[in-house]
Amino acid sequence: MEAVVLAGGFGTRLQKLVNDVPKSMALINGKPFLEFLLNYLTGQGVDRVVLSVGYKNEMIQSHFKDKFKHLQLVYAYEEEPLGTGGGIKNAFSMVEGELAFVLNGDSMFRIDLNALMAEHRRTKADITLALRYLEDTERFGTVVLDDQHHITGFREKNPDSGAGYINAGVYVINKQYILQPDFPAAFSIEKDCFEKYFSRSNFVGHPAKGYFLDIGIPEDYMKAQDEFRRFED
User: Fold this and answer.
1) Distance between terminal CA atoms of the chain?
2) What is the pLDDT of residue 13?
3) Contact at 8 Å (CB) between 161 and 141?
4) pLDDT per residue over 166-185, tens digit each?
5) pLDDT tens across 47-57, in order?
6) 142, 148, 144, 194: which is closest to 168 by C-alpha?
7) Which of 49, 65, 120, 146 has its CA 20 to 30 A from that of 77?
8) Contact assessment for residue 130 and residue 58, using Cβ atoms and an 8 Å cutoff
């Protein structure tokens, strides 16, 4: 079981609270956010993690080195910003198996990863997206599914978005699919892959329940200081 974690984000919107560190290293009760994420992966059967790093990557590597508990850690470096898709593609060159989980390094969605993988295999998907139902999707936009959970569209975020399923930033991706030459070195996984190719690829949505928080804005970063106490060792 392998996972790719996108850990190189700048954290621009958090600059007033978190200065000059990668967003994944923002402190939650004295511990980097990434530590909580890796701790979650240890309980899900993952044994190898490729950390996609760029900005201030030395801070991440000096803190975690090559192991976290039983997790083997390896690093995929971005010499220049590659976007979410480019970061994933670059990291998949270091994935040893045929597929891997992918997680955003600034959000937590505590779901059963084995159930996500089972859905991916059952549907023979190219990519499976974990989806979270929210009453207010204004910050995220929504994902549209058919009765078989195949993704049929994406709706842009807007103040009138209302309730629906959001892309919660946890995926299963086939290595052969993401490494194909159609995808350039730098691109957005959301815009240049999901939204561009859903009609001609087998993209599946996996609605799941579980704790969800994206620390990308100051309000939710502060919320994590209280709510993450339940996840501490």
Assistant:
1) 23
2) 54
3) yes
4) 999 999 999 999 999 999 99
5) 999 999 987 88
6) 142
7) 120
8) no
Pairing label, strands 67-68, 107-109: unpaired
- Rg of the chain in Å (alpha carbons): 17
Q: Where are the beta strands (DSSP E) in the chain?
A: 2-6, 27-28, 31-32, 48-53, 67-68, 71-77, 99-104, 107-109, 127-134, 142-145, 151-155, 164-174, 203-207, 212-214
Q: Alpha carbon of 199 to those of 191, 203, 227: distances in Å?
A: 13, 8, 38
* Run of H or E including 59: helix 57-64
Measured distance CA(166)–CA(164) in Å, rounded: 7
Paired tokens of 189: 């996984």
Amino acid at 89: K
**Is the pLDDT higher at 231 or at 93?**
93
Please, what are the domains in the chain?
Answer: 2-130+167-231 (3.90.550.10)
Query: What local confidence, expressed as pLDDT, does residue 124 receive?
Result: 97
Would you say 7 and 34 are in contact if contact means Cβ atoms under 8 Å apart?
yes
Task: Answer whether 0.90 is exceeded by the pTM.
Answer: yes
Please state, in angstroms and as integers, the Cα–Cα distance from residue 52 to each residue in 122, 211, 218, following that order: 28, 24, 23
Distances 226 to 82, 91, 106, 141 between C-alpha atoms, Å? 33, 32, 16, 26
